[in-house]
Amino acid sequence: MSTLTIVAKVEAKSDKVELVKAELLKLIAPTRKEAGCIQYDLHQDNSNPAEFVFYENWESRELWQTHMNNDHLKAYMEATDGAVANFTLNEMSQIA
């Protein structure tokens, strides 16, 4: 089975950028220690600081699903409730 790549885009509301950024940064250390996490990198758009992208690689979809149910992700969801304008997530497979 191939590696699962996740591209998750988070757009913060204009008045909540620093809150969302701080909460996203809290996810990095615990997630990188999780079973199956190969890569978990957070990016912020250079021209629109309200846009963030996580680029992730996981050993399997099952291990990523475990990540999605972890307490630190639940805490992020609670802390940023109402602060995110848009969220998109793509599950991808490398083809070349």
Automatic annotation (TrEMBL):
Protein name from the UniProt record: Antibiotic biosynthesis monooxygenase
Domain of life: Bacteria
Name of a matching Pfam family: ABM
Organism per entry: Photobacterium chitinilyticum
InterPro entries cross-referenced by the UniProt entry: ABM_dom, AI-2_Isomerase_LsrG, Dimeric_a/b-barrel
SUPFAM superfamilies (alphabetical): Dimeric alpha+beta barrel (SSF54909)
Keywords, ordered alphabetically: Monooxygenase, Oxidoreductase
GO molecular function: monooxygenase activity
UniProt cross-references to PANTHER family, sorted A to Z: ABM DOMAIN-CONTAINING PROTEIN (PTHR33336:SF3), QUINOL MONOOXYGENASE YGIN-RELATED (PTHR33336)
Domain ABM: 4-92
